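User: Some background: our group keeps a shared notebook of sequences we're curious about, and every so often someone picks one and asks for a predicted structure to add to the entry. Today it's my turn. The entry only has the sequence so far, pasted here. Could you supply the structure so I can complete it?
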Amino acid sequence: MNNPETEFARELEVFENEIDEAMRCFYVWLTVHRLARENVKIFDFLNEYASFWNPALRALQANSIIALGCVFDRDQRSHSIDRLLQIAEQNSMMFSKAAIRRRKSTTLGADKWIDDFMQGVHVPAARDFRRLRRYVDARHKTYEKSYRNLRHKVFAHRDRNHVNASFRNATTRELGNLLTSLQRLHKALWHLFYNGQGVSLNTVSSQFRLRIAGETEAFLKALIAPRQRNAAPGRPGHSSIHK
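Assistant: Of course. Here's the predicted structure to add to the notebook entry:
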């Protein structure tokens, strides 16, 4: 059996990667749609090469939902948020002061500051894990209500008969909020494990989201910069989960 600390660190990294993947795909997709509404040259460019952009945007949308499905997978054999919390709950000693001190002691120059650092270490109690479980359960409900059918019936199995019904309760605002809440959860667990900080689920920085949007906008504008378009604008034919 793996060392619980090693396993938790690995599952925490997998969780971070899944959220990173979902957020990157979602905010690239969202930014392209926004720019198509705001910039007529980008609007025309997407239409002109719709045979590329239609499947590309659908793939981005699908991948964000599929990554989200991995996070909320109920199979205990899967890398999921349930598995991550289970390891934490069953091995709470890895959050003890002794465990934190051992991990932090490997940092260069730790002997000079570690005693002061340890005075502020928070050791989680059962109520902390109950709070985390309630937080995850609430996000599970949102996923089950609005995105589970997208993951299983539309994107994974290409069951197009369920598209309209599956998208009915899904909105970009809700999906963005769900992804951000998972990003907050990762941050809280990371700091609890590596820094002994108390569980905080406050709002995270928007820097990551803004960087994705900025890079996407810069990329599209670079594509259209050398071009002169004279064609009348049409309607870009990309799919949307906006209802």
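Suggested note for the entry: Confidence is low (pLDDT under 50) at residues 159-169, 228-233, 235-243. The chain has one domain: 4-101+117-224.
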